TrEMBL record:
Name of the protein this chain belongs to: Prolyl endopeptidase
Protein family membership: Belongs to the peptidase S9A family.
Keyword Transmembrane helix: no
Protein species of origin: Blyttiomyces helicus
Pfam families: Peptidase_S9, Peptidase_S9_N
Catalytic class of the enzyme: hydrolase
Enzyme Commission numbers on file: 3.4.21.-
Described function: Serine peptidase whose precise substrate specificity remains unclear. Does not cleave peptides after a arginine or lysine residue. Regulates trans-Golgi network morphology and sorting by regulating the membrane binding of the AP-1 complex. May play a role in the regulation of synaptic vesicle exocytosis.
Phylogenetic classification of the source organism: Eukaryota, Fungi, Fungi incertae sedis, Chytridiomycota, Chytridiomycota incertae sedis
Residue span(s) of domain Peptidase S9A N-terminal: 91-496
Ranges for domain Peptidase S9 prolyl oligopeptidase catalytic: 563-751
Keyword Hydrolase carried by entry: yes
Database matches in Gene3D superfamilies: alpha/beta hydrolase (3.40.50.1820), Prolyl oligopeptidase, N-terminal domain (2.130.10.120)
UniProt xrefs under PANTHER family: PROLYL ENDOPEPTIDASE-LIKE, PROTEASE FAMILY S9A OLIGOPEPTIDASE
GO terms of molecular function: serine-type endopeptidase activity
Length: 815
């Protein structure tokens, strides 16, 4: 295997000298040794995986086959309609929305890997006046809005979609953005849908992020597109710009985007600087209320947010001042309905969020603006949904007659609806749409989402004047089905029923939620026992413990929903148990669950994952030495600690104890060096991240905690490791390539059981031909992409199949 050169350096933090022999890997193109080392690691990975080439090739085909099955019958470039309750229903369509006078949907065409955005006039759809059961347009009225197959170069190795935003005032105008590198610096294009003409620079507006909105200046008729922009120095979207598209006056007065922080630059394409956020721990985005009455900038960090109005019913706001002034540690977001702002906030003691209502006029007239921390006690504020220790409010939506709150109860998402205008109501009296039976674990694995989005943070287009709430539900086994909830009656109607997947018989699988008991329980009087939820699926025909892949994240108060993905079926069909651990640090069980897994209490995340592994073993579902654990990004801390502390290495006596559990670890774009990352403000997102991990420079307690759980700095003594695959992206702006590379270099320097074969730990021992010393593979794959997988299937399947092959061989599955 490659051996990285050692260039000892030391950094003084909290009067402690922190060593780093591999910081030179940060030098990138300035040091040819970096490219040489990375090339050597990639070549070594190829050599180690050569024995599994046949399996990996088969897995690529399996991933493609399952993807095609899940998508439904392939369609040609001309639409093939299927019979449905509202007319033609296009095969495979489960992403659609209404905006303005059009119904939009996404089509995938046979032999193409990128989406085609389509639309048809709403007036020609049975949705017009037909109730909640018909929201699908008939054939013959469609228009291609954007065909990304014609936009993305054929030789592109990476693709990620940013914005897709049609102007509601002039529905011939589209703004969209794409990233072909992985840097998360999107190129924004403005086009005329009817003529195909590109408006503005032909090569697009560079360096934008993913939020885009349209606005009309009522005094001049000018049509502007607003967007957030990445500051190349800090690496975060802290700027908001706008670009005039129609009826434009001279831009000579405008401030132009600077090439560096705080600098001015020559005019470029008529872009105007709208706002700069001075606090580099916060980011910017542009958004609108569902009723489109207000366009605003949302300034957001990990624990703090603020909203500044750009446009309202009376026109443009100048100056751009806060709606409610920020307070450190307090988040809020807004909706608007009939003269009132509806505010979701965790101000004060409402850690799980509450919903407040304040008259629009009073809020806008307040000078200075009302502090968000004082909003609940403002004279004209009323409470809509009270705070509850048992309910975490994730998101709110306002419609013409109803308010919708997306909430978590006992880790599971529910939908709360209440008529508008709101009357203060006890939490228990609100109408709820539940999807689970508390007594049946099989009903407790699902992912319900607003509209047809696949991520709670994604752009959500809604029609305001409707009583129909569209939502999507899926599970690990069940493909997405789309429903419309009649908010007047509480009745749901299928719009796009769950489509059976050929070759998938749900009856031969078990999916459900189980709970693992924490091995170390709180000792404080009155504390509740800690139990960690695990979502899982496996074939029921198998006997005895199963080879297992466990996924864990545990950060940012995130949610790892057990949503449908065709990617898992090549594993399930080979007899694996697929599990998701929901540890502290995620927010499945509310704000306290999140807070108990951050800062000085971060160790709870890792012990919870260990206890999930023990729980699966104790239940007879998994077996020590046949478990793989995967963590990506912040979950890299999980993966790193499993490798260091809870690895199973056959034949190595000191790794055969009670906590010897995982034989394989996959660390994808892993965050593994919190100490040296969090002291370096030149790394993008670091000030933002201080509110998640803490700042070791300013807090000795944080520094001590980080040193105790840092995988990178835990690599001190010689030790045996399970099989480990680390994956990095050269264009990754969040976890820079050098961090995973340093981790592998340091791990290799202390590893006592290097094995040149992929599966020395388990499979070799099965046939008596093992290498005898517990040798396991340690490999680093450095790709040319970024933090997120490409949305193009052709490249993605190969990357997934590679680490799948590593997992399967490592847990004893040979074909």
């Amino acid at each position: 295997p490659p051996t990285a050169k050692r260039v000892p350096t030391k950094t003084l933090v909290q009067n402690v000298s922190v060593p780093d022999d591999y910081s030179w890997l940060r030098n990138g193109s300035a040091d040819p040794d970096v490219a040489t080392y990375i090339a050597a690691e990639n070549a070594y990975t190829d050599a180690v995986l050569a024995d599994a080439t046949g399996l990996i090739t088969t897995l690529v085909g399996d991933l493609a086959e399952w993807s095609n099955r899940a998508a439904g019958p392939a369609i040609s470039a001309t639409r093939d309609g299927l019979s449905g309750p509202c007319g033609a229903v296009e095969p495979g369509v489960n992403t659609f929305w209404e905006a303005g006078s059009y119904f939009y949907w996404i089509r995938y065409v046979q032999g193409k890997q990128y989406p085609v955005y389509m639309r048809a006039p709403v007036g020609t759809s049975p949705a017009a006046g037909a109730g909640c059961g018909c929201i699908v347009p008939p054939a013959g009225t469609e228009q291609v809005v954007l065909d990304l197959n014609a936009v993305v170069p054929e030789n592109a190795s990476y693709f990620y979609q940013g914005a897709f935003e049609v102007s509601l005032e002039d529905e011939s105008l589209l703004a969209y953005s794409i990233d072909l590198v992985g840097s998360e610096e999107y190129v924004l294009y403005v086009v005329n849908i009817t003529t195909g003409e590109t408006i503005g620079p032909a090569d697009g507006i560079r360096n934008t992020y993913y939020s885009v909105r349209w606005a009309v200046d009522q005094s001049t008729g000018a049509r502007w597109v607003y967007y957030n922009v990445v500051d190349p120095v800090w690496g975060i979207p802290r700027w908001v710009y706008r670009f005039c598209v129609v009826e434009c006056a001279s831009p000579a007065h405008a401030q132009k985007r600077g090439a560096r922080r705080g600098a001015d630059a020559l005019p470029r394409h008529g872009e105007e600087l709208v706002y700069v956020e001075a606090d580099v721990s916060l980011t910017t985005e542009v958004a609108t209320t569902t009723d489109n009455s207000f366009l605003y900038i949302k300034i957001a960090g990990q624990i703090t947010s603020e909203i500044r109005i750009l446009y309202g019913p009376t026109g443009q706001f100048n100056p751009i001042v806060p709606l409610f002034t920020r307070s450190n540690g307090t988040n809020y977001d807004i909706e608007h309905h009939n003269g009132s702002f509806i505010v979701r906030t965790n101000a004060g003691s409402s850690e799980n969020f509450e919903v407040l209502l304040v008259p629009t006029e009073a809020a806008l007239a307040s000078s200075p603006p009302i502090p968000i921390i004082d909003l609940a006690t403002f004279a004209t504020t009323t409470t809509g949904i009270s705070h509850s220790a048992y309910q975490y409010i994730e998101r709110i939506e306002a419609f013409s007659e109803h308010l919708v709150a997306w909430v978590r109860v006992d880790g599971l998402r529910e939908v709360v609806t209440t008529p508008l205008p709101m009357q203060p109501s006890p939490v228990d009296s609100l109408r709820r749409l539940r999807f689970q039976d508390p007594a049946n674990p099989r009903t407790q694995v699902y992912s319900v989402l607003p509209g047809t989005i696949s991520d709670m943070e994604a752009r959500l287009n809604r029609r305001f004047n409707t009583t129909c709430l569209i939502y999507t539900n899926s599970s690990l086994l069940r493909p997405p089905a789309v429903y419309a909830l009649d908010m007047r009656t509480g009745t749901s109607t299928p719009l796009v029923p769950e489509r059976p997947v050929p070759g998938l018989d749900p009856n031969v699988y078990f999916e459900g939620r189980v709970w693992a008991n924490a091995r170390q329980q709180p000792t404080d009087p009155g504390s509740s026992p800690v139990r960690i939820p695990i979502s899982l699926v496996y074939q029921t025909g198998e006997t005895g413990p199963l080879p297992t892949l466990l996924i864990a994240y545990g950060a940012y108060g995130d949610f790892q929903d057990p949503a449908f993905s065709s990617d898992i079926f090549p594993l399930l069909s080979r007899g694996l148990l697929y599990a998701i651990c929901h540890p502290r640090g995620d927010a499945d069980l509310g704000a306290q669950w999140y807070r108990q897994g951050k800062f000085e209490r971060k160790w709870n995340t890792f012990s919870d994952v260990r206890d999930c592994l023990h729980g699966l073993v104790d239940m007879g579902l998994a077996a020590r030495g046949r478990i793989a654990v995967k963590g990506r990004s912040a979950g890299g801390l999980v993966a790193g600690n499993v490798a260091l502390r809870w690895g199973f290495v056959d034949g190595i006596e000191d790794r055969m104890g009670e906590d010897s559990l995982a034989s394989v670890v996959i660390a994808q774009v892993p965050f593994v060096d919190p100490v040296l990352d969090m002291i370096d403000e030149t790394v993008p997102w670091v000030p933002y991240e201080w509110h998640e991990w803490g700042n070791p420079t300013t807090s000795k307690a944080v520094f001590d905690a980080m040193m105790s759980y840092s995988p990178y700095h835990g690599l001190n003594a010689s030790v045996a490791f399970p099989a480990v695959m680390v994956i990095a992206g050269m264009e990754d702006p969040r976890v820079q390539y050098w961090e995973p590379a340093k981790f592998v270099a340091r791990m290799r320097a202390v590893k006592t059981n290097e094995g040149g074969q992929l599966f020395g730990a388990w499979v070799d021992g099965m046939d008596g031909a093992g290498i005898g010393d517990g040798g396991t593979a340690l490999v680093l794959r450095v790709t040319d992409s970024g933090h997120f997988d490409s949305e193009g299937d052709f490249a993605r399947f190969g990357r997934v199949a590679e680490w799948y092959g590593f997992v399967l061989r490592g847990v004893g599955v040979v074909a």
